[in-house]
Design a protein that fits this description.
The protein is α/β, with parallel strands linked by helices and 97 residues long. It has 6 helices and 4 strands. A 4-stranded parallel β-sheet has the order 3-2-1-4. Helix 3 links the parallel strand 2 and strand 3.
Length: 97
């Protein structure tokens, strides 16, 4: 099963992506695991619950985008990483590496 990690899931664009993927038809026919990443566990849990997603440690990833080790630890388990962290020019550098 593929793991898709959305970094910045608590922001507007990340929330739209999370909603789209949570309701995607292929989630049932060829399942993939969706993980939400961001700075606030409380906000991530709220979004996950509203989308009917798990709130376990594999589905909620607390990450500090300004800390390379934190970002690396978050993305290592993912097959696909969607970077919706903004401002992109300021917070996205460690994700791109």
């Amino acid at each position: 099963m593929s793991v898709i990690l959305i970094l910045g899931a608590t922001d507007f664009a990340g929330g739209l992506i999370a909603r789209y993927l949570a309701n995607h038809p292929q989630r049932t026919s060829s399942p993939f695991t969706l993980a939400l990443g961001g700075r606030s566990r409380e906000k991530l849990n709220k979004i996950a619950t509203s989308l009917g997603l798990n709130t376990d440690a594999d589905s909620i990833v607390v990450v500090d985008p300004s800390d390379y080790a934190s970002v690396e630890g978050a993305v290592v388990r993912a097959k696909v990483v969607i970077n919706a962290i903004h401002p992109y020019w300021k917070s996205g550098e460690h994700v791109v590496r």
